[in-house]
Amino acid sequence: MIEIRLHGRGGQGVVLAARLIAEAAVSEGKYVQAFPEFGAERSGAPIAAHHVPYAATASISHWKDLMTKVRRGLSKSGPTFLHVLSPCTRGWRYEASQTIKVSKLAVETRVFPLYEVEDGVYRLTVPVTHPRPMEDYLSCQGRFAHLLQPENSGELDRLKKEVELNYNRLEKLSQLTPQLPAIQG
């Protein structure tokens, strides 16, 4: 057995590299175990799994939600986690004047859902009932220009499905966990 692990912090091509390695192995008749891509890592799942009193995602485009989550996190005793989306003009390749727009589109397309996990209970804090097309988010950033090319339509469709699966998972967790007893850390 050969194990290959890739780690990155975004914009480094780790997801694409992992996918290419897996596809090459499959084409050689090898068995490949699925790799987690983005979703679990970015959604704070590993943090929430450790039963911290508070974990959440936030975006600079939704500042009231961000401030509420900062206050909640600070009010807890013990470790808390807040993953804040703050786009990078240089790495993401967009004009600085578009920072809030890019942040807002990440939320409105469900690419970066805003939610919190408080004492084990999930809650979507900014539900997106009518998401904008993912292309709106991708097209304003140079780093995703390749995904909008016709030859990459399959990859774009796969990403759309992945984003929807992640959002649907969070919706279900938000519906189910309030019925469970709170986890006391």
A few lines on this structure:
This protein is α+β, with helices and mostly antiparallel strands and 185 residues long.
Topology:
Layout: H1 14-27, H2 45-49, E1 54-59, H3 63-75, E2 80-85, H4 89-92, H5 99-108, E3 115-118, E4 121-124, H6 134-139, H7 153-176
Parallel strand pairs: 1-2
Antiparallel strand pairs: 1-3, 3-4
* Unreliable sequence segments: none
In terms of DSSP E residues, the strand content is 5-15%
The CATH class name of the largest domain reads Alpha Beta
**Helix share of residues?**
40-55%
Q: Main beta sheet, described?
A: 4 strands, mixed
Q: Look at the structure and name the CATH superfamily of the largest domain.
A: Thiamin diphosphate (ThDP)-binding fold, Pyr/PP domains
Category from helices, strands and their pairing:
alpha+beta
How many domain units? Answer: 2
The name CATH uses for the topology of the largest domain is Rossmann fold
User: How far do the termini sit from each other?
Assistant: 38 Å
* Gyration radius, in Å: 18 Å
The coarse overall form would be: globular
Number of helices: 7
Describe the strand arrangement of the main beta sheet, using strand numbers.
Answer: 2-1-3-4
> On the 0-100 scale, what is the average pLDDT?
82
CATH architecture of the largest domain: 3-Layer(aba) Sandwich
Strand segment tally: 4
The topology string of helices and strands comes to HHEHEHHEEHH
Write up what this structure looks like.
The chain is 41% helix and 11% strand. It has 7 helices and 4 strands. Strand 1, helix 3 and strand 2 (80-85) form a beta-alpha-beta unit. A 4-stranded mixed β-sheet has the order 2-1-3-4. With 185 residues, the protein is an alpha+beta fold. It has 2 domains: 1-35; 38-179, Thiamin diphosphate (ThDP)-binding fold, Pyr/PP domains (Rossmann fold). The relative contact order is 0.13.
